[in-house]
Write a structure and sequence with these properties.
The protein is 23% helix and 22% strand. It is built from 15 helices and 28 strands. It is elongated and about 85 Å long. The chain binds calcium ion.
Length: 641
């Protein structure tokens, strides 16, 4: 059936004059395989080689491909008769009289070990049982609670109790699923899970760790997270099993995509097929390095833009992916980001880092945070809120609001409203953005920690001298309450709910498991942390007032109380929020080491967040008679009537 649909799609594309080679590579049928690859105009010859193995050995067949024109380049095609299921293939393109070297091309959807050769498989055979019934959970952007996870971090330690440690399959196990459901998050953002370079898949016993921001094959799952990287169908099947298990639990799966750079230039599949086409160069002919990783791709080029659009669509179609987090989104142009947005269903959530890691060789508008309003339904991480809480990104030892540094109040308020225009925010006192960047609050990602930089515990230790465990817990809970009550889309690093640390390492991209792993024993050591997170998330989910989803509603119903030193407080008129069962809702964040009072109208309220407890279901009775309520030291206070 699937093959038939593919065939129909190709015929339709030809009939409607669309670009039939939107996805090159191989199309398999049991009778023959069709191969195609795109090159620059000056390519002289393309050789297709067929192998029995994914690595080593000599080709069993070599074919010269035929050329035709395609877009701004050339399309090379070849048909090979017979059933090639289980074989492997490479292309080798000749420029200036020299073959550049073998490559699976940019559109391999299955590969051998380490992604050196494309694999010929029947994709329909990779579907787990019941896959046809798998659907993306129906969760609106305003309702998302995102949990950022690295496969090894999450399951590698023996304390995880999981069988498939460091593998996609760990996320199919009851221990994993039950924990995520118990916590209450509804979207898992998985760190790079496409085929990347830095872990040698032939030496998995070495237990080498990497985040994976070094792409090789963009459209194939990483072999190191599979139980057998030599068998091309295994990683695909196991990835799908993971998606299926999470979807069954009502959890969306968001893929971290890294189209902004490749692992290297000379050996990349981009460069081996279309030299210098996919990369930006400086005026002096050197490669631009806006990614900080040695190169930057050129999304504004027709072929690169088409590649990104088709790649995202492929992950949705083949793997049922629910959303995408664009690494260094600020390296891409806004036209490409909008083209991606337009090409995918509206429920696909798209967000990214609205910055680059260096200057980009592009004179048009880039998908920077400041341009978010020009990219409807695309969100950007708010470093305003993050750094206002924990301290600036360029110095681990500097504190901010959590460490009682004054002057962060307006930046916090910027994050509370979701980076939108709001009459209560003094934008000239915000740390980075001096104007709102989001049109709607769902265009802002609210967070205090992610895989980059120190995790929250380490940052608190590094920036607040003499801090003890009790104070770490108080400030950790305070910080996450700011995040989880923000009108933006809340996002947390996995393991924060178990008070994880990374032994003070702030860039743990290749640190060993001992640094990166979650210690599941902490759930028993600090049960109050998990209990608080869980109730806090439940409170957000149960109360639309904390995720109104519309800038107009936030402007109308959320009003700030006057700032005090290291204290921010606001009132939400819950009566005006559809579906809200609470009336007047007061939220106050006090980072000071002493209680501070705020002015509120007299009346009877219920306290639901107090010190290290969050109990939205059964609040403590509070009667205000003198127009004042005391906010305890270093904590959030939430009460309502
Ligand atoms: Ca790999």
């Amino acid at each position: 059936m699937r093959r038939f649909i593919q065939l129909i799609a190709i015929i339709m594309a030809l009939a409607t004059g669309q670009n039939a080679n939107a996805r090159t590579g191989v199309t398999y049928t049991p009778g023959e395989c069709a191969f195609s690859v795109e090159t620059n105009q000056d390519a002289q010859q393309v050789r297709l080689s067929i192998y029995d193995q994914g690595i080593g050995g000599k080709p069993v067949k070599t074919v010269n491909m035929k050329q035709s024109s395609s877009g701004d380049g050339l399309l090379w095609q070849a048909e090979v008769k017979g059933d090639l299921n289980g074989k492997f293939y490479t292309f080798d393109v000749k420029y200036n009289g020299k073959f550049r070297g073998e490559t699976p091309g940019i559109w391999a959807t299955a590969v051998g070990v380490n992604g050196k050769r494309g694999a010929i498989i029947d994709m329909a055979q990779t579907d787990p049982q019941g896959w046809e019934a798998d659907v993306r959970p129906d969760i609106a952007a305003r309702d998302l609670i995102i949990y950022e996870l690295h496969h090894r971090d999450f399951s590698i330690d023996k304390s995880s109790g999981m069988e498939h440690k460091g593998k996609f399959l760990a996320l199919t196990e009851p221990r994993a699923i039950n924990h995520l459901k118990d916590l209450g998050i509804n979207a898992v953002h998985i760190l790079p899970s496409f085929d990347y370079a830095s872990v040698d898949e032939t030496r998995l016993a070495d237990n080498k760790y990497n985040w994976g921001y070094d792409p090789v094959n963009y459209n194939v799952p990483e072999g190191g997270y599979s139980t057998d990287p030599y068998k091309p169908a295994v990683r695909i099947n196991e990835f799908k099993q993971m998606v299926q298990a999470l979807h069954k639990a009502g959890i969306k799966v968001i893929l971290d995509v890294v189209y902004n750079h490749t692992w290297d230039i000379d050996g990349s599949n981009f460069q081996l097929t279309r030299p210098d086409y996919y990369y930006r160069k400086n005026a002096d002919g050197t490669y631009s390095n806006g990614s900080g990783c040695g190169n930057e791709t050129a999304s504004e080029r027709e072929g690169m833009r088409r590649f990104m659009v088709e790649s995202v669509k492929y992950w949705i179609d083949e793997y049922h992916i629910d959303g995408f987090r664009f690494d260094l989104m600020g390296v891409h142009d806004i036209e490409t980001m909008n083209a991606i947005r337009a090409a995918v269903p509206q429920d696909i959530f798209i967000y990214g880092e609205g910055w680059s890691a260096g200057s980009c060789a592009y004179s048009g508008e880039l998908a920077m945070k400041a341009n978010t309003s020009k990219m409807p339904s695309i969100a950007a991480f708010s470093d305003e809120m993050r750094d206002a809480l924990r301290g600036p990104w360029d110095s681990d030892s500097k504190a901010a609001f959590l460490g009682r540094v004054k002057g962060n109040e307006e930046s916090l308020k910027f994050g509370i409203v979701g980076a939108i225009e709001h009459p209560g925010v003094k934008y000239d006192r915000v740390n980075y953005s001096k104007a709102p960047y989001a049109t709607e609050p769902t265009q802002m990602i609210a967070y205090v920690s992610c895989h980059d930089d120190m995790c929250l515990v380490d940052r608190l230790k590094a920036s607040i001298p003499g801090i003890d465990t009790d104070e770490i817990i108080r400030l950790d809970l305070l910080a996450q309450t700011v995040v989880m009550t923000s009108q933006g889309v809340p996002f947390m690093l996995s393991g924060e709910e178990m008070l994880r640390d990374k032994k003070g390492v702030h860039n743990s991209f290749e640190s060993p498991d001992e640094v990166n792993h979650l210690d599941w024993g902490n759930l028993e050591r600090y049960p109050q942390v998990m209990a608080y997170y869980k109730n806090l998330i439940a409170m957000r989910k149960a109360h639309p007032a904390f995720h109104m989803g519309s800038a107009d509603m936030v402007r109308r119903n959320l009003e700030f109380l006057p700032n005090k030193l290291c204290l921010v407080a606001y009132h939400i008129n819950g009566r005006q929020v559809p579906g809200e069962t609470w009336g007047d809702i007061y939220v106050a964040f006090n980072a000071q080491k002493r209680p501070v009072s705020i002015d509120v109208p007299n009346g009877k309220y219920k306290i639901v967040c107090y010190k290290t407890e969050c109990k939205p279901e059964n609040g403590i009775h509070l009667e205000v008679t003198k127009g004042k309520v005391t906010v305890p030291a270093q904590s959030a206070l939430i009460f309502h009537n």
